[in-house]
């Protein structure tokens, strides 16, 4: 499972969600502007910055603004 940390106004987030949907890759979206804990997680992964989209995978690893190809490769490595 993937958790995508996002905001409602992030164009990169909208693009990635469309790509994941098209590929049939399931994910959960968490809005960092509505969830302080989520914002803290994103800051930890990104050197203090609230950079989105940030994806966190089941193994605890993360990608910041990945391509759909990077997401697919990561998911393949987890199986």
Automatic annotation (TrEMBL):
GO MF term set: electron transfer activity
InterPro entries found in the cross-reference section: GlrX_actino (IPR011915), Glutaredoxin (IPR002109), Grx-like_ET (IPR051548), Thioredoxin-like_sf (IPR036249), Thioredoxin_CS (IPR017937)
Entries under PROSITE patterns matching the protein: GLUTAREDOXIN_2 (PS51354), THIOREDOXIN_1 (PS00194)
Biological processes per GO annotation: cell redox homeostasis
Domain Glutaredoxin: residue ranges: 2-57
Name assigned to this protein: Mycoredoxin
Organism (species): Nocardioides cavernaquae
């Amino acid at each position: 499972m993937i958790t995508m940390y996002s905001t409602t106004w992030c164009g990169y987030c909208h693009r990635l969600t469309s790509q994941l949907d098209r590929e049939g890759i399931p994910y959960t979206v968490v809005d960092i502007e509505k969830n302080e804990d989520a914002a803290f997680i994103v800051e930890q992964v990104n050197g203090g910055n609230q950079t989105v989209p940030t994806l966190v995978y089941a193994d605890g690893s993360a990608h910041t603004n990945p391509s759909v190809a990077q997401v697919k490769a990561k998911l393949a490595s987890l199986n």
